[in-house]
Amino acid sequence: SQQGEEDPQALSIQEGENATMNCSYKTSINNLQWYRQNSGRGLVHLILIRSNEREKHSGRLRVTLDTSKKSSSLLITASRAADTASYFCATDLSGSARQLTFGSGTQLTVLP
Amino acid sequence: SAVISQKPSRDICQRGTSLTIQCQVDSQVTMMFWYRQQPGQSLTLIATANQGSEATYESGFVIDKFPISRPNLTFSTLTVSNMSPEDSSIYLCSVAGLDEKLFFGSGTQLSVL
Q1: Alpha carbon separation from B39 to A3, A96, A102, B60, B110 (Å, rounded)
Q2: What is the mean pLDDT of residues B65-87?
Q3: Contact: B42, A104; criterion CB under 8 Å
């Protein structure tokens, strides 16, 4: 079964609102990464958080990691229509990106 | 960072035919990865392409169905052989950066009729 499961599967919000996506996983990890995919295209790396980190920021993105609960969340603040995409978490067990396991994804729609 | 050119971007193919997808990277990389994304699903690793040796396939994927070439450190191809409608997916190549993240090509959207 997949390492990462995300919820919600789909999220629709108004422009300017915040969007929160959650990811749960099953085994110990070296790091957890978030990627964005625009409609059927390649994935773009957003942010990486290591197992010894609890929170990380990058622009309008905030990622948290709770290793005791084996969960992570991605917060996008002040969302824009251009943020409309699918968001995937990916767990890295070894720290080499050779065996990333992707979650099921959250489809975010930001309405103008 | 790495820039990856993948082609074709999309194709519509007939059942029983084969399609070869090409992936060109702008720098030399040891390993290249091929993923499949079935409609509405997440990514599944097909195989890891190593230069100078045979590709390493994940469980459920076999060389006869998905032969891979890796002639040098900047190029790889994935062939989807004897296609059926169940092979309709997005196929993605990727490489790992020095900072443990993956860079992806733009994907090949394959539809099999």
Answers
A1: 19, 28, 15, 18, 10
A2: 96
A3: yes
Confidence of residue A71 (pLDDT cuts 50, 70, 90): very high
Which tokens go with A78? 């002040």
- Average pLDDT over every residue of A69-84: 97
C-alpha–C-alpha distance, residues B52 and B49, integer Å: 9
Interface residue A83 vs chain B (CB under 8 A): no
Helix (H) or strand (E) holding A86: strand A85-92
**Which residue of B6, B31, B107 is in closest CB contact with A98?**
B31
Scanning chain B, the segments in alpha helix (DSSP H) are none
Q: In Å, how far from its chain's centre is CA A73?
A: 7
pLDDT over 50 (residue B82)? yes
